[in-house]
Amino acid sequence: MCGVYRNIPVWSVHPAGRLPGAGNLCGQEEIHLSIYLNQIRQLITLQKVDDEIYVLDKELKAAPQELEALRARFAEVQARRERQNEKMEHLHEQEKRLGIEIEDDSARIRKSKSKLMQVANSKEYHAMVREMDSLEKVNRDREEEKTLLIEELTLQRGLKEEVETEFAAVQDELQRCEAGLEARVSKCQTVRSGLVQRRTEVSKDVPMPVFTRYEFIRERLDHPVIVSVVNRVCGGCHIAIPPQAYIELQKGTQILSCPNCQRLVFWQEHFEPTQKAEE
Ligand SMILES: [Zn+2]
């Protein structure tokens, strides 16, 4: 930050015009302080308008980002839903195939049983019995497979229901967000342009060197530009003002910057003196 801008003498009152002396303020010093306080008040008023603009700008920036985040979430749920549907489809195909195979095997067993009645010799008979046994075993395995498949289908159906519920909710939220975004943005912009106009009005009251300093800080530092000092602590960076600078601040002869964060500072007590406990 440029050192030239560090502190600004109270505009239109030359510091040399200040009468020396401690204790009560003499007439000249009183005028001087009141000009100083007036400039601080003008800056605070300007800051308040900028505070509102700051909030709106954040909102204007956040609104499309929220929509983007929602779109990304929707795409993610949609992909998950598709994967789930594919899985279900695959399981149904498996179920169908198993059904056919079980049916075919049963038919084969029935056929073998009827053939069994017609065999002539015992050698052939035993061979047929063995064949039937192995067919029955295959069929039992398939029945087992079917049971497992049904269990899996029940589980996947539950998951599908969950994903469908989530999908519907996100889709609904996205549609509402898309519809509302335009209205939200245009409302913000309307309010903002009113504030910008008000800012121009308010700026006119601030002496040019003071306003230039304010703008210089506003463009370079994080919001806000002017902050109060309460109990020696800067309201911007929350670090204590060094003793000498604090004494200067209390005098109210020039607009000071916080030595740490460079924001403009004013002493809160100038505006809201602490009530001395008398009771
Ligand atoms: Zn500070």
Tell me what the structure shows:
This protein has helices at residues 27-116, 122-204, 208-220, 243-251, and strands spanning 8-9, 226-230, 233-234, 254-257, 264-267. It has 279 residues and is α+β, with helices and mostly antiparallel strands. It has a domain at 61-205: Helix Hairpins, CATH 1.10.287. β4 (254-257) and β5 (264-267) form a beta hairpin. The longest helix is centred in the first third of the chain and has 90 residues, at 27-116. The chain starts with 7 loop residues before the first strand and ends in a 12-residue tail after the last strand. The protein binds zinc ion (ZN). Zinc ion (ZN) is lined by residues 234, 236-237, 239, 258, 260-261, 263.
Secondary-structure topology with pairs:
Blueprint (H helix, E strand, L loop, with lengths): L7 E2 L17 H90 L5 H83 L3 H13 L5 E5 L2 E2 L8 H9 L2 E4 L6 E4 L12
**DSSP helix fraction:** 55-70%
Distance between the termini: 48 Å
Provide mean pLDDT, rounded: 88
Each distinct ligand: zinc ion
Largest sheet: 5 strands, mixed
Walk across the major sheet and give the strand order: 1-4-5-2-3
Shape: rod-shaped
In short:
The protein is of the alpha+beta class and 279 residues long. It has a domain at 61-205: Helix Hairpins (Orthogonal Bundle). The chain is built from 4 helices and 5 strands, in the order βαααββαββ.
